[in-house]
Amino acid sequence: MSQDSPKVAVTSLVKSFDKLPVLRDVNLEVYAGEVVVILGPSGSGKTTLLRSLNFLEQPDSGTIRVCGHGISIARGQPLSREDKQQITQLRQKTAMVFQAFNLFPHKTALENVTEGLISVRKMEKSQAIARGRALLKQVGLAEKADSYPAKLSGGQKQRVAIARGLAMEPEVIFFDEPTSALDPELRDEVLSVMRQLAGAGMTMIVVTHELRFAREVADRVIFMEGGAIVANEKPAVFFDDGASPRIKQFLNRY
Ligand code: ADP
User: Fold this and answer.
1) ABC transporter domain: from which residue to which, for each copy (predicted)?
2) Whose CA is nearest to atom 5 of ligand 1?
């Protein structure tokens, strides 16, 4: 893959649930090191777009390429074996952080972080533990390594989930409303870890309602409505002079 080719490239993406069109001809490119924030009203297709990028949702048609792997989907065509291999490879280069954390409740914070390294990457246990501890330290949770999720706050759980994603050394991280399940006072600790990752050059696509984060951290802000991308701008343009009346109305509600 050349230096200049996008990390994520989506072309003509279409998806319906039953008869409901949810993504209508979505086109998107995200380059290495970019932080792209996706905003938009509830039901506009943000989560479906994000989940389509690593095939947690199967689009109806369109092309998705992530980190040099991807497939073209034609309506009604089943995935080939080659397509499935591409999806597996693509998933190995990405991480997804969910609103609901999705930690294993019967594993400690450290075990949650090391699980993939040991079972998928087949890393030596002692090496995985050392890496897991370093990652927990990076997200400010060194002292919580042996705690179970039930003993952690929401913000701590989400930071463990981020450390778990980082353990697999992803080239791109997808965040699906990572702070929406958190009380306001716990959001900043998660957002500050995300800022730190952005500052370190991680490529990130973030569905969120955190407008301050979008303004301060995003390289680009995408606004979705009715299953389509209706704005794709630098934050300065999006938040200041470029917004349509519809977007201004949305922003005023937050
Ligand atoms: P957003 O993230 O912008 O709130 P979503 O992508 O979650 O939007 O949802 C877009 C539309 O698709 C909504 O109308 C939602 O109800 C519908 N939808 C999402 N997931 C499913 C599903 N698994 N089955 C049926 N409809 C769904």
Assistant:
1) 8-251
2) 45
Q: Is the CB of 47 under 6 A from ligand 1?
A: yes
ipTM over 0.90: yes
pLDDT in tens, 223-250: 999 999 999 999 999 998 767 888 888 8
- Residue of 62, 166, 69 whose CA lies nearest to 113: 166
Tell whether 24 and 84 lie within a shared domain: yes
Nearest CA to ligand 1 atom 20: 48
Is the Cβ atom of 227 under 6 angstroms away from ligand 1? no
- The number of folded domains in the chain is 2
- Whether the Cβ atoms of residue 92 and residue 117 lie closer than 8 Å to each other: no
Asked if residue 21 has its Cβ within 6 Å of ligand 1, the reply is no
106 Cα to the center of ligand 1, angstroms: 30
Please state the pTM of the whole predicted model.
0.95
Does residue 234 lie within any of the structural domains? yes
Which of 152, 169, 186 corresponds to the end of one domain?
A: 169
- Residue 148 structural domain: 103-169
In a domain? residue 73 = yes
Query: pLDDT per residue over 129-141, tens digit each?
Result: 999 999 999 999 9
Residue nearest to atom 23 of ligand 1 (CA): 17
Identify whether residues 84 and 148 lie together within a single domain: no
List the one residue out of 220, 165, 223 whose CA is nearest residue 194. 165
